[in-house]
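Thread amino acids onto this structure.
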């Protein structure tokens, strides 16, 4: 391990530490990233990233706007979270500037094996949960109460489920690449089975359709048309089966209550959007405003990836950051046209699709580890920056 680490460049060593931090609890993870971000600020690496990556200046415009909006509405949580947001984007820019195809493969392998570690921690946690209910033998029970659902090192079970989706997607990418030994393939399959089992123990229902859709789209981009048709068909069969046999869906007993809570949250969010459509009230607006509305459900965000950005950032805020994502999309499209790594394009599109589907009922992408892993992966097209730039 130490020999491997010594062989890396300075930038690769820093990226490796950042990746390892993804598998720490929220606060230690954020502290590691903060220390490294301050170091990169001192060394000039951050300045270099913002100078060289197209559209990155809009991240700074967006940051300034959110700080001003949060201050105006005295949204102190949003004000603090804005610094986290710019740190997340900055970390992803550092990866974009220094990522290479070789290190991307190394990084994703590391992610897969570390996912097994947090998976084992999750299983130990599950056995402890059973023990608290005086169950001293192994039995599969999915509890409704959040404290009694597996979350491993992450903040809650839904965030962990989102991470597992990403872990499985990355492992699927590696399998599609076909550049592995039989021994490594077996390890990938075993780790995937472990992650899927732990995903079931999290009790997160939305993660399953998101995961299936992500894997299906990855097959499409990797030109596995027959496998694409097979997995798409199996997904359709699974949907029909679960629709007719809902007892197999985790925590189905509280689904009506769960949906009612979501509808209540969205009602409050939409009411606030009507009064603040242009600028929102800064990050975490829902947490800032829910007390102003009778019978509002107390929670941190609007539990919807389409509603919460409008609620928090407003139309102007979204328009401010949009050019960065437009520029990134153009580079991704160029990579796809070049055909350098269609499996990588599929992974990126799969990540986006997983996030959008999962985001229909939750906002799990708007958190520490989920945000950074998402931004790193969807920006990984720049591992082929030379090929993309030469195509301009």
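Threaded sequence (392 positions):
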């Amino acid at each position: 391990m130490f020999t491997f680490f010594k062989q890396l460049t300075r930038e690769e060593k820093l990226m490796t530490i950042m990746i390892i931090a993804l598998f720490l609890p929220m606060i230690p993870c954020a502290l590691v990233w903060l220390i490294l971000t301050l170091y990169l600020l001192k060394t000039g690496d951050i300045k270099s990233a913002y100078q060289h990556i197209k559209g990155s200046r809009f991240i700074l415009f967006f940051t300034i706007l959110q700080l001003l909006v949060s201050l105006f509405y005295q949204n102190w949580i949003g004000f603090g979270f804005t610094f986290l947001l710019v740190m997340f984007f900055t970390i992803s820019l550092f990866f974009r500037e220094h990522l290479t195809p070789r290190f991307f493969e190394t990084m994703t392998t590391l992610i897969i094996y570390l996912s097994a570690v947090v998976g084992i921690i999750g299983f130990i946690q599950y056995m402890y949960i059973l023990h608290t209910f005086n169950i001293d033998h192994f039995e599969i029970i999915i509890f409704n109460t959040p404290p009694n659902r597996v979350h491993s090192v992450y903040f809650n079970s839904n965030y962990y489920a989102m991470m597992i989706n990403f872990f499985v997607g990355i492992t699927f990418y590696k399998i599609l690449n076909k550049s592995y030994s039989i021994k490594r393939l077996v390890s990938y399959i075993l780790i995937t089975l472990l992650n899927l089992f732990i995903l079931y123990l999290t009790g997160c229902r939305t993660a399953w359709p998101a995961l299936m859709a992500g894997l299906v789209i990855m097959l499409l981009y990797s030109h596995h048309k027959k496998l694409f048709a097979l997995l798409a068909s199996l997904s359709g069969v699974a949907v029909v089966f679960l629709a007719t046999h809902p007892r197999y869906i985790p925590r189905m007993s509280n689904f009506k209550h769960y949906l009612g809570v979501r509808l209540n949250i969205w009602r409050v969010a939409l009411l606030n959007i009507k009064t603040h459509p242009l600028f929102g009230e800064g990050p975490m607006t829902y947490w800032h405003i829910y007390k102003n509305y009778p019978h509002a459900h107390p929670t941190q965000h609007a539990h919807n990836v389409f509603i919460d950005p409008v609620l928090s950032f407003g139309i102007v805020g979204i328009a401010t950051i949009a050019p960065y994502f437009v520029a990134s999309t153009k580079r991704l499209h160029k990579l796809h046209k070049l055909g350098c790594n269609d499996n990588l394009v599929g992974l990126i599109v799969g990540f986006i699709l997983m996030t959008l589907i999962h985001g229909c009922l939750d906002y799990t992408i708007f958190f520490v580890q989920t945000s950074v892993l998402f931004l790193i992966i969807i920006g990984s097209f720049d591992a082929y920056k030379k090929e993309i730039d030469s195509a301009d």
